[in-house]
Amino acid sequence: MKKRMVALCMAAVLAFAVTACGGDDVAAYRESINSIITEVQDMDSQVNDAVQAVQDALNNQDEAAYEEQLEILQGYSDTLKEKYQAIANEKAPEEYAQDQEQLKEYADQLGKMLDASMEMYEIAYRYAVTQDVTDEEVERLSELQEEIASYAEAADGFDEVLNRIMGNTEE
C-alpha cells in the first residue's frame, strides 16, 4: 500500500511538473512574440514618416529625394518582412501549432503585399515624372492594386491569430 501511495504521489508530482513546464513554454512563447511585436510597433512612426517622405518626393517630382526615400522605405519593408517571419517561425508550444501555421501563411502574404507596394511606388514615380508608362505598366499597376487588396485579409488574420495567442481575445 505504501508503494502504491508513493507511486501515486510521484505520478501527481510528475503531472504537475509537466503541466507547469507547459505553462512556462506558453509564457516564454508569448514573451518572445511580444518582444518582436514591440519592435514592429516601435518602427511604426518611422515607417509612416518614410511613406510620407516618398509621397512628398513623388508630389514634388524630386527624383533624388524619391530614390533616397524609396531606399529607406525598402529597408523598412525588408525589416518588417523579417519580423513577420520571425513571429511566424517562433517555436510554438504544441497547443499553438495550428496558429503558428496560420501565422506562416499570413506572414508570407504580408511579405508579398509589401513587395507589391514597393513595386507600385516605383511605377507610380515613373508615371508622375514622365507621364509616360507603358500599357504593361498600367496593367501591372492595376494588378498590384488588386493584389494588395487581396492581402488585406492576411493583415487582419495575422492580427487575429496574434491576439488569440497573446490571450487578448476569447477563443
Task: Describe this protein's structure.
There is one protein chain. The protein contains 5 helices and no strands. With 171 residues, it is mainly alpha-helical. Helix 2 (63-89) runs antiparallel to helix 3 and helix 3 runs antiparallel to helix 5. The longest helix is centred in the N-terminal third of the chain and has 59 residues, at 2-60. The radius of gyration is 23 Å and the shape is elongated. Residues 1-22 have low confidence and may be disordered.
Give a short summary of the structure.
With 171 residues, the protein is an all-alpha fold. 88% of the residues lie in helices and 0% in strands. The protein has 5 helices and no strands.
Number of helices: 5
Largest sheet: none
Give the C-alpha Rg. Answer: 23 Å
Question: What number is the mean pLDDT?
Answer: 82
